[in-house]
Amino acid sequence: MKNIPTDSLRTLITVVEVGGFAKAGELLGLSQPAVSLQIKRLEELLGNKLFKKQGQRQVLNQHGEILLPLAKEMLKVNDSILQTFSSEVLTGKVRLGIPSEFAATILPAIIGDFVSLYPDVSLEVKSELSKQLLHSDNRDQFDLVLSLIEQADQSKYPVFMDDELVWVGEISKVKGDVINLVAAPEGCIYRRRAIAALEAAGLKWRVVYTNADLAGITAALKEGLGITVLAKQTVPMELAYAKSSAMLPELGSVGISLIKQVEESQQAVTKLAEFIALRLK
């Protein structure tokens, strides 16, 4: 009797959710070849290819589309069994603050898995710019904050990982004397780094559209209004991105920090922090 490995199913779901084998590997702590091997073994086990090439991306084919909801259901059962027989029972409420781009792309799957494992923990999630999340006036609003951290502040806030910054949008169409930027309001790390990189390269720029929400920025990019900067892990799967181009300079990386605002004795907060860090690395 054949058995389907749950780790391969989890890899499949992650590839679909983040939009690529490399990004899935970064989240799961696997190399891209290891991710590809897991998918290949799953395809061999099922006797069908699960992905097809669409432009530069791998997307699910008809067999993959059939498997995806079944895989999610199987993992729910798997996690439910583990939770039922786990001796660790977590209760309480956790107020989590996260940047909007993480809330829209990476966190839904992570939070979904956490809630499945610890159903007695109530989560309250709020999205803000990292600058607002870390502001002293907002300290009492959150128990745990996931935030982008600039180099100058990394001695103050512990950074558990770095992520590469990339240009997002129709990069190949960038030309002319002025670079059009789509950005969040002033105070946004991405906006600041984009402007600093362009000015250091001697390039002129202008902000043509401002929106604090990733959905609004994504819509503007799809309309071709300009380009933006994001952490590589948070780029929506429908958008193209590049580290640099003939017209655009490299941006470097940004630190990501998980900051607990409460005492270590609050186990639900500590467990959620560990869960997010493990899944993001």
Write a compact overview of the structure shown.
The chain is an alpha/beta fold. The chain is globular and about 65 Å long. 41% of the residues lie in helices and 24% in strands.
Description:
The chain is of the alpha/beta class. The chain contains ten helices and eleven strands. Strands 3, 4, 5, 6, 9, 10 and 11 form a seven-stranded mixed sheet that branches. Helix 8 (189-200) links the parallel strand 7 and strand 8. The chain is globular, with a radius of gyration of 20 Å. The mean pLDDT is 85.
The unreliable regions are none
Order of helices and strands: HHHEEHEHHEHEEEHEHEEEH
Largest sheet features:
7 strands, mixed
What is the multimeric organization of the chains shown? single chain
Between the first and last Cα atoms, what is the distance in angstroms? 35 Å
Shape: globular
CA-based gyration radius: 20 Å
Structural class label: alpha/beta
Total count of strands: 11
Strand content: 15-25%
Mean pLDDT: 85
Number of helices: 10
